[in-house]
Design a protein that fits this description.
Elements (H helix, E strand, L loop, with lengths): L5 H4 L3 H24 L17 H14 L3 H8 L3 H18 L1 E4 L2 E3 L2 H11 L3 E9 L22 E9 L4 E4 L3 E2 L4 H6 L9 E3 L12
Parallel strand pairs: 3-7
Antiparallel strand pairs: 1-2, 3-4, 4-5, 4-6
């Protein structure tokens, strides 16, 4: 159901199959390396098996990124504990980020520097915008706990900056920061204003980009 309905993940079944074939081996390799780097009390292959196979981990991550679904909701959907979903998303997201964004058959962008170079050489106009994603309230005792409360909607959230081309295709997404970080401050950290061809979505300030 999730794979066959593009509205859920935003991707076609063929693209998801491609992601599984490309990212899956990397996940298994890192998982095995993580197990091998610590003392073992069981033989390799012993103990309980994964409750969430890689395909489900990938799908849960895609749904979370597209719809900002909470880990609790995804845990109920996939019939696992919330901590399993949290761990799965934490493992898969970096792999998707390293894979980058494919803009053509021979061009794949992985870093902001590559995006800037692509925009400059192709003469394409880039659009930078900010988006807030609701998150669970940080744990009691965390020093920067209050920084996650958004001034806009008064809810706990993180903020990311997104760069797209003129057609709305995502080229790059920044690391998430606490929601109280001003949009213009967030935008200046990677210094996108110094790059010709990259424009802010708003004059002076960058607004919410859920419509991208």
């Amino acid at each position: 159901m999730i794979i066959s309905n593009r509205r859920i993940t935003g991707l076609t079944g063929d693209v998801i199959v491609e992601l599984v074939a490309e990212v899956g081996p990397l996940w298994h390799e890192r998982h095995e390396a993580k197990l091998a780097c610590r003392p073992r009390k069981r033989a390799v292959g012993g103990g309980p098996k994964h409750q969430l196979v890689f395909v489900d981990r990938l799908l849960a991550t895609l749904v979370h990124l597209r719809h900002s679904a909470t880990h609790d909701v995804l845990a109920c959907w996939f019939s696992v504990d919330r901590s399993t979903i949290t761990r799965a998303i934490g493992e898969v997201r970096p792999l998707l980020a390293e894979r980058g964004s494919t803009v053509s058959l021979d061009v794949r962008l992985r870093t902001l520097a590559e995006v800037v170079e692509y925009l400059g050489t192709s003469g394409t106009t880039g659009i930078i915008d900010g988006t807030e994603i609701r998150v669970r309230r940080p744990a009691v005792g965390r020093k920067d706990r209050d920084r996650f409360i958004s001034d806009k909607n008064k809810q706990n959230a993180v903020k990311s900056m997104v760069v797209t081309d003129g057609e709305g295709r995502v080229l790059w997404c920044s690391p998430a920061r606490p929601a109280t970080c001003a949009d213009i401050t967030h935008a200046r950290r990677p210094q996108p204003r110094l790059v010709p061809g990259v424009e802010n979505a708003d004059e002076g300030d960058v607004h919410d980009a859920h419509g991208l």
